[in-house]
Design goal:
Length: 222
């Protein structure tokens, strides 16, 4: 009985590994179809700006498609594999579409400097959340509110001139307040109109790219 159980387990492990390998090969082929060559990934910042934007939009759409299709859906599976393909280039590629979005948003809100840098870093570090956010202005608003809340939290925790046990207590209390769900919801209410206007402009410009992607990814999956 024990030998049969061991054999069954080994077979199950082997089948799972083979399934993951098939999925990895599929993802790799689809990504390379989008980027055309490894050189385009390696030298992304040297490509024409229009091509950078096109590839970045296609990549985000592909991340969304793969996630919704449950491809490499184990913990950190898909994002871990993508980081294996792109390395540190992943954030740089996403920055092509994130930075203009953040610039427009913060300009409308009246924030700049620290928050610009933080939001770009935060959103590009969460590509799956970005892909989900591009599904609706409500989802985008939530992502922006979370990023602003996290940015405020980090700013408070790193505030210079607040040293000593008393200041630490106040700093931690303030940090906890801005991380609270009510605070995030309050930010959403304040920025939703601005974010939704920006979302309409963004998706309008990207819609042609997404439409062109659909037959390509269908061919890659065949």
């Amino acid at each position: 009985m024990i030998e049969k159980n061991i054999k069954s387990t080994l077979i199950e492990i082997k089948e799972k590994k083979e399934s993951i390998l098939i999925e990895q090969n599929l993802v790799h082929s689809r990504i390379m179809m989008i980027f055309e060559s490894k050189d385009n990934i390696k030298n992304f910042k040297k490509l024409p700006k229009s091509k950078q934007t096109k590839l970045a939009n296609k990549l985000v759409s592909e991340i969304s498609f793969l996630h919704e299709s449950n491809i490499l859906n184990e913990q950190d599976g898909l994002m871990g594999f993508l980081k294996g393909i792109f390395g540190n280039s992943l954030s740089g590629i996403l920055q092509t579409i994130v930075e203009p979005m953040v610039n427009s948003l913060l300009s409308a809100i009246g924030l700049e400097g620290y928050f610009k840098n933080f939001l770009v870093s935060f959103i590009t570090s969460h590509p799956l959340e970005l892909a989900k956010a591009l599904k609706s202005c409500e989802a985008m608003t939530t992502l922006v509110a979370q990023a602003l809340s996290e940015g405020a939290f980090m700013m408070i925790m790193q505030q210079q001139g607040m040293e000593g046990s008393g200041y630490t207590f106040l700093r931690n209390a303030l940090g906890g307040a801005v991380k609270d769900t009510k605070f995030i919801n309050a930010i959403e209410e304040q920025v939703s109109g601005i974010v939704c206007q920006l979302y309409e402009k963004m998706t309008g410009k990207a819609s042609e790219v997404v439409d062109k992607l659909k037959p390509e990814t269908a061919a890659a999956a065949a």
